[in-house]
Design a protein that fits this description.
Helix content: 25-40%
Distance between the termini: 45 Å
CATH class: Alpha Beta
Number of strands: 12
Low-confidence stretches: 1-25
Mean pLDDT: 88
Oligomer: single chain
CATH superfamily: Alpha/Beta hydrolase fold, catalytic domain
Structural class: alpha/beta
Shape: globular
Largest sheet: 10 strands, mixed
Strand order of the largest sheet: 1-2-3-4-6-5-9-10-11-12
Order of helices and strands: HEEEEEHHEEEHEHEHHHEHEH
Length: about 300
């Protein structure tokens, strides 16, 4: 049986489940406005529990795949709330890349108990809200769907997880690679008060007025310059600083052979110019998981340190 099913299959399975009263189909939970459809739980050799599920998004009127990794002590320490690390995947990457690429993160949860989570953002949504329907390939078919992943993250994903897991709401952390690095900074600058720490692995921070990758999401730069300016990380950061808002702790990593190195150096320069505290690291490496997996222990250590500070 597939762990994550198509929308049509889900409707059929839920109907069968209701008729039979019991069975091995995905279970359905309603908490407040949010419908969470559980698919499967897996115990890892490190003692962690991986729970896969789908969240019915009212904003997008469709199901979004997600999962959480629970630390080994979670099931027995029922009175404790845990920090949560939101991992944001890169463009066209599997959503669970942080968990499947290297066992480093799973091993770390024994001594650094936190909840780790991720969600599917369609591969090229850039974690943004788009005013247009987007083409999403599903097998041989292409379906136009709403793409509102800023709204989903803050108004649906975070509260849904808060209602279903023991999460310490004062200990939220963000990390992402490449497109996910952009997403981490975008979310941080949207609600900086919500997070304790944010990290980026080779984040794609280039200015939108020099590139057209956001045009399918936001329309043409010439016709809608304000839309593009509003998601320009450099301009957004300047705006947040101008408002006097406090930013969470920041950690950035990039390889010296990475084509995105100039953009990471530009972000480093802007943070320095604005007097924002951050940690930055460069070392030999290209744009890919061969470099990122090697740096993941440092990322985890940074976030764990931020909790005690």
């Amino acid at each position: 049986m597939e762990s994550w099913r198509t929308p049509g299959q889900v409707v059929i399975l839920i109907a069968l489940f209701a008729l039979m009263g019991t069975g091995s189909f995905a279970s359905e939970e309603k908490t407040g406005e949010f419908k969470l459809l559980r698919d499967e739980n897996t115990e890892t050799v490190e003692g962690c529990t991986i729970e896969k599920f789908r969240i019915l998004s009212p904003a997008m009127n469709r199901e979004i795949k997600a999962l959480v990794v629970l630390p080994p002590e979670y099931k027995n320490n029922t009175g404790k709330k845990y920090p949560i690390l939101y991992t944001l995947h890169g463009a066209k990457s599997p959503i669970d890349r942080y968990i499947t690429m290297t066992p480093v993160l799973l091993r770390a949860l024994k001594d650094k108990p936190m909840i780790v989570t991720c969600m599917d953002v369609d591969g090229l949504s850039w974690y943004l809200d788009s005013p247009y329907l987007q083409d999403i390939a599903r097998g041989k078919d292409s379906t136009k769907v709403k793409s509102l992943f800023t709204t989903f993250f803050f108004e649906e994903f975070i509260p849904c997880l808060d209602q279903n897991y023991r999460i310490n709401s004062k200990q939220r952390m963000l990390t992402g690679n490449s497109m996910g690095g952009f997403g981490a900074f975008h979310y941080m600058l949207t609600k900086p008060e919500l997070f304790v720490s944010v990290s980026s692995l080779s984040g794609l921070f280039e200015k939108t007025d020099a590139d057209k990758k956001w045009e399918p999401l936001l329309g043409s730069i010439r016709e809608f310059p304000e839309r593009h300016r509003s998601v320009d990380i450099f301009e957004h950061l300047k705006s947040v600083v101008l408002k006097g808002l406090k930013l969470p702790k920041i950690y950035m990593i990039c390889g010296t052979e990475d084509p995105l190195l100039p953009h990471n150096r530009a972000m480093q320069s802007l943070l320095k110019e604005k007097g924002i505290a951050f940690e930055y690291q460069e070392s030999p490496g290209k744009h890919g998981w061969a470099f990122w997996s090697d740096k993941l222990p440092g990322v985890i250590d940074f976030h764990w340190r931020s909790l005690s500070q």
